[in-house]
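Tutorial, part two.
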Amino acid sequence: MRQVYVKEYGITPGNDRALLWKVRMMLDELQGTMGIEFVFESGTYHFYPDYAVEKTLYISNHDEDVPKRIAFDFSGWRKVKIRGEGAVFLFHTDILPFHLDRCHEILIEGITIDYERTGYSEGEIVELSGKRMVLRIDRKEYPYRVFHGELYFEEEGAYHPLYYGCLEMDRRRNAPVYQGRDISFNRPYPSSYGAVFREAGENLVEVTLTEDQQFPETSREGNRMILRHHLRTHPCFYITGSEGITLRDITIYHCTGMAVISQFTKDITIERVCLVRHPQKDRIFTATADGFHFVYAGGKIHIKNCVLENQLDDPVNIHGIYGRIHKVTSKREVIVELVESMQKGVLLGTAGDYFAVIDNRTMLEQEHAVIAEITWMNSDYQRIVFAEDMENLIPGFVVENQSWVPDVLIEGCTFRNNRARGLLLTSAGDVLVRDNTFETPGAAILIEGDSNYWFESGATRHIVIEGNRFHHCAYVSAWGKAPIQVSPSALVWEKDRRYHQYLEVRGNVFQCCDDRLVNAVNLKKLVFLDNKIERTTVFEPIKGQALELDGVLEVETDINKEQQI
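Running the prediction step on this input gives:
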């Protein structure tokens, strides 16, 4: 493999606004060359969006915000390594660090990623009464101003309002507060608080509620508030239509989207990729959304020895997309709508893929066939032509691409102190989760599937959860009914058919403050054996039984029957 030391192209550590121009010139010169290893020497590299590549991108499960500027665009590259010898990549404003599109055999390793100005800010609650809160905000770290009773944050030249909600974090644990929830101010829905903001002193902002509401009972002086003023727009790694991708020995402190988002990609390995709090900065948050997110993956997903903490959504989510039948034009042809706003523009497959037609009420397959043609009409609609006549093309039913089903191995990882849940596993392949540690406020393992709201697809076939450690999970009821939760959104289910098939939970350690272990519905078989349950007093117990099951056809367990419903 040919080694290319990027300093030969003038790409050296430092705060140079033209650095991305040099990166573009280097990549343009070497485009099409296989077997290259790019080497970045130690130091901090500043990347500004001024000369970045710009493309229209529809990134699943992100806010629609096109076009995007890209620092490292490796579209069409094959057999490439990007190696940082302790290099720190510091990005400025709205920019997507890495886009791998139609790539094969790519390895990225040995780099650290952060942003000069984070997309979120934070403050400490220093005073609190029923309708009044005073926040201490470091104006140097998180520049802000108050205009006409609203709080705005400066992000390297642009001002964004505090509009996207707040999350309170327990200062002692650096984790979401017990039985907490998201809150927001002056948003157009009932759960939002009407509020007026005003300057209350140096680095102090007073928030006064204007309606018949009070701050949550869970709020405490000394806790931190994560202040969200940026949409989830720019992940660190956006991988599409690729195969054989490895991310290894990478540290990520922040990004304004997910750490890794992959669409229609086969065989991904993520090893020792750590999404963690910055050791020198007092930030309590990391990424603004999920850790690792996979939409219509194939081959094998292998996540090994990673640490994901304090991000503002789930550590891992694996799923497909349900497209809703909007209009039936013949027995072979339908117009399909992408309903969920964060899935807009994502093409559901290609000709030759195997699609199923699914009743959105039961979420059970009605029939299937290969598609002969799929056409992207616009970000909302796609035209799908099946290779044969179909009998169950009904408006409101959904379609699912079943050609993209990954096997999954997640091992040796730690997932802690993030907002919401742990692993969202909706894949029909073989799924093994072993030797991991979970400290999540919601369900550590969520097996869902939804054809009516999120439209995330994936009836599971075989999932094994073994040898893991679950520490005080599901202490926020809104994010989980138990450490392990199976809850597809089907409104009804048939007598002998179930959406999810087999879940085995064996040889794990559960440290719990109450009885709850598994909450499951619409599952064919549950095996719960040889697990060790330890009672603790970290949190107040939440009502529930060890195994709360509804519509589970077979159960094999050594839990005492009096502990079950």
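Residues 391 and 553 are 29 Å apart (CA to CA). In part three we will examine how such features are distributed along the chain.
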